[in-house]
Design goal:
It is built from ten helices and ten strands. α1 packs antiparallel against α2, α8 packs antiparallel against α9 and α8 packs across α10. The structure holds flavin-adenine dinucleotide.
C-alpha cells in the first residue's frame, strides 16, 4: 500500500467512526452526558491515536497534515471528542520523541489502544496566558523528584491515566527553570476531578489535577529546563493549527447544513434560499471561511516543512476562531428555531468555538503575538 492509499484508508476509517458513534453521541455530550468509555477503544481502531507515532513504535508514521485532516473530520461532528483524542495522541508522540525506552514501553501500549487517556498540563489557577508564572514545583528527592502543585482546565484530566506536567525544577522561578515531567496519575499523591463548563463539552473531559508530593523517578523529567519552554511553544504552533482546522470544519459543516435546510424550508411561498437577504449570511460565512482555510493551509504547510510556524499558526487560529465565532451564531439564526436542536450541529459548534478561542493561546494573546512579529516597535515591554 502506498502512503497515499494508506492515508485514504485511515481517513476513511475516521470518517466512518465520526459518522457512527461520534454523530450518535455528540447531541448527548453537548447536553452534559459523559461519553461511554468504550468509544476510546473504538477510536483507537481507526488509527487516530497512533497517526503520527513512528512506525518502529507501532504507529502509522503519517505527517502533520494527515493528523489535521483527521481532526477536521472528527470536529465536524464533535470538537470535544476530537480534542480529547488529539491530546492523548500528543502525549504518546511526546513520549516517543523524548522519553526513556522503559517509560515508552510502560505507557505507549495503553495510550495507543485507547485504554489510557492522557493530558498536557500547563495551566494553573493563577497562571493561564502567562505560562511562565506557573508555581508548580518539582523538588529533587534522592535520584528522583517530588511534584506539588495544581493544574486546572486540563483536557482529559477527569479520565486521564497519564500526564505531561510542566513545573519548575527546584525553587527557581521564570521560564528557564520549567521542565516537563511524565506523571502517572494512578499513583498516590494525585487528585483528578472534573471541571464542568456552562457551555457543556463533556466529551473533552476537562478537569483539575492536584499533585501533593507525587514521587517521580529520575527519568520522568522528559523535557529538561532550558529546552522545555521552547519545546512547548513549538508544540503550541501545531495545536493552534489543528484547532484552526477544526474551527473551519465546524463552520463548513454548519454552512452546508444551513444551505441544505434553506432549500427545504419555505417561507412566504418560496424556499429560504430564494430570499436574497437570507442568503447573505451564508455568503459572508463562505467568504470568511475561504480566507481562514487558506491561512490554515499555510500554517500546515510550514509545520510539515519544519519551518518556524509561530506567525502562520497564530494568524490561522485568529482567523478560524473569529470566523467560527462570528458565523456560527448567524448560521444558527438562519435556521430559525430548528437550529437550536441538539441533533443539529449549530449550538454545539458555537460552544466549541468559544472554547477554541481560549485554548492554546487566547485570540487576544495571539493578536499580540502577530503584532510583535509583524509591526514595528509594538513590543513595549521594559
Ligand atoms: C475547555 C478548555 C480546555 C483547556 N485545556 C487545557 C489543557 O489541556 N492544558 C492546559 O494546560 N490548559 C488548558 N486550558 C487552559 C487555557 O490554555 C487557558 O484558559 C488559556 O491559556 C487562558 O488562560 P486563562 O483562562 O487563565 O485566562 P487569563 O490568562 O487569566 O486571561 C483572561 C483574559 O485576559 C486576556 N489577557 C491575558 N493577558 C493579557 C495581556 N497581556 N494583554 C491583553 N489581554 C490579556 C486573555 O486573552 C483573556 O481574555 C483549557 C481551557 C479551556 C477553557
Amino acid at each position: 500500500m502506498t502512503g497515499q492509499e494508506g492515508e485514504a484508508a485511515f481517513l476513511g476509517r475516521v470518517a466512518q467512526f465520526a459518522a457512527g458513534p461520534v454523530r450518535a453521541g455528540a447531541p448527548c455530550w453537548s447536553m452534559g452526558a459523559a461519553p461511554d468509555p468504550a468509544i476510546f477503544a473504538e477510536a483507537a481502531k481507526t488509527g487516530i491515536l497512533s497517526v503520527s507515532i513512528p512506525r518502529a513504535l507501532g504507529g502509522a508514521g503519517f505527517g502533520f497534515g494527515t493528523l489535521v485532516r483527521a481532526c477536521e473530520i472528527l470536529a465536524a461532528e464533535d470538537f470535544g471528542l476530537a480534542m480529547s483524542l488529539v491530546n492523548t495522541h500528543n502525549v504518546a508522540l511526546r513520549l516517543c520523541r523524548s522519553a526513556a525506552p522503559n517509560l515508552i514501553a510502560q505507557h505507549l501500549p495503553g495510550l495507543l489502544s485507547g485504554g489510557t487517556a492522557a493530558c498536557t498540563a500547563l495551566t494553573e489557577p493563577g497562571a493561564g496566558s502567562d505560562f511562565a508564572a506557573i508555581t508548580a514545583q518539582a523538588m529533587l528527592d534522592g535520584d528522583g523528584w517530588r511534584l506539588s502543585g495544581e493544574k486546572t482546565w486540563i483536557i482529559n484530566a477527569r479520565r486521564a491515566g497519564l500526564s505531561v506536567v510542566f513545573a519548575h525544577c527546584g525553587k527557581a522561578v521564570g521560564a528557564g527553570s520549567i521542565g516537563g515531567f511524565v506523571a502517572d496519575l494512578t499513583q498516590p499523591g494525585v487528585l483528578c476531578d472534573p471541571i464542568d463548563a456552562a457551555f457543556s463539552q463533556s466529551s473533552m473531559g476537562t478537569g483539575r489535577l492536584v499533585f501533593d508530593n507525587l514521587a517521580l523517578p529520575p527519568e520522568a523529567l522528559i523535557l529538561p529546563p532550558g529546552g522545555a519552554f521552547k519545546s512547548i511553544m513549538v508544540e503550541l504552533n501545531a495545536a493552534r493549527t489543528y484547532v484552526a482546522a477544526m474551527c473551519n470544519a465546524m463552520t463548513r459543516v454548519a454552512l452546508a447544513e444551513a444551505a441544505q435546510y434553506g432549500s427545504e424550508r419555505h417561507s412566504f411561498g418560496k424556499p429560504l434560499f430564494a430570499h436574497q437577504a437570507w442568503r447573505m449570511a451564508l455568503v459572508q460565512a463562505e467568504t470568511d471561511l475561504a480566507g481562514a482555510a487558506a491561512l490554515t493551509a499555510q500554517a500546515v504547510a510550514e509545520i510539515e516543512a519544519g519551518r518556524d510556524a509561530q506567525l502562520s499558526a497564530a494568524r490561522a487560529k485568529i482567523a478560524a476562531t473569529d470566523c467560527a465565532q462570528r458565523h456560527l451564531p448567524a448560521l444558527l439564526h438562519a435556521m430559525g428555531a430548528e437550529g437550536l436542536r441538539p441533533e443539529r450541529c449549530f449550538a454545539r459548534h458555537l460552544a466549541a468555538a468559544q472554547v477554541a478561542s481560549l485554548t492554546d493561546g487566547t485570540t487576544t494573546m495571539l493578536r499580540e503575538r502577530v503584532a510583535r512579529l509583524t509591526l514595528p516597535r509594538t513590543d513595549t515591554r521594559e
